Amino acid sequence: MSSILTTEGVPLYVKIREGIRSDILQGRLQPGQKIPSEEELAEQYRVSRMTVRQGILDLIKEGLLHRKRGVGTFVSYPHFDRDHTRLTNFFESAREQGIEASSVVLKIEILAAPEKVAKHLRLEPGGSVICIRTLRYVNHTPVTVHDSYLPHRLFAGIIHEELENVHLWDVMEKYGFQVKRALQKLEAKPAAGEIAKLLGVKPGYPILYKERTVFSTDGTPVEFTYCYNRGDMYSLTVAMER
């Protein structure tokens, strides 16, 4: 841990807070890493636990740290905020926030559409769809598992496209479909099974789950997705008026 500031007149808790902040920003403390306990920090800085606690609480309020009850205090992962006041894709949002984003295609297959998928894409039951599973990363940390279903009759050639680190909406334009609007449902769920493994979290970890139907400019449903987002790294911004 960094030594505290020597500036005269600055409260001790502020010096400790800024010392920890410096360790986080300079990479000496990494996201997900547990910081020393209040007792250890109090001994290191030769201050009271209450002084240490006040500095830590400031960083928790800012979102730089978070507590796990009975375990300790940890460095938070950087939050990836999706602005849902407008329709942007994953890579556009990342660029706007100065965040490094990437994606890996885990599987791509042609199959008969499950009932819910067929309904949202306005297909006959069992109609042919292309299923693409991608794992998306923010600053090299997995943040989203994305299962996308596309009508095969509209995008048959997409299985031959290079799809890693590319957003499907950009590829769709090559096939004459430009994304215009989307409808989606959000809910909190616990991570389970393969999703937990892919996101690098324990089963039961909170995730933000989304179902979304995307429409092109002429109203054609071109994509239905299931999205599983890490709850500690993913947030939404929505504008509301009355």
Number of helical elements? 8
Q: Proportion of β residues? A: 25-35%
- Provide mean pLDDT, rounded: 86
Question: Class of the largest domain in CATH?
Answer: Alpha Beta
CATH superfamily of the largest domain: Chorismate lyase-like
Order of helices and strands: HHHEEEHEHEEHHEHEEE
Helix content: 25-40%
- Number-wise, the strands total 10
Number of domains: 2
Report on this model:
With 242 residues, this protein is an alpha+beta fold. The chain folds into 2 domains: 12-75, Winged helix-like DNA-binding domain superfamily/Winged helix DNA-binding domain (Arc Repressor Mutant, subunit A); 80-237, Chorismate lyase, CATH 3.40.1410. The chain has 8 helices and 10 strands. It has helices spanning 12-25, 38-45, 49-62, 90-97, 115-120, 152-155, 168-172, 193-199, and strands spanning 65-68, 72-75, 80-83, 101-112, 128-138, 141-151, 179-190, 206-216, 221-230, 234-237. Helix 1 packs across helix 3 and helix 2 crosses helix 3 (49-62). The longest helix has 14 residues, at 12-25. It is elongated, with a radius of gyration of 22 Å.
Keywords:
two-stranded antiparallel sheet; Arc Repressor Mutant, subunit A; alpha+beta; 242 residues; Chorismate lyase; single chain; 6-stranded antiparallel β-sheet; 2 domains
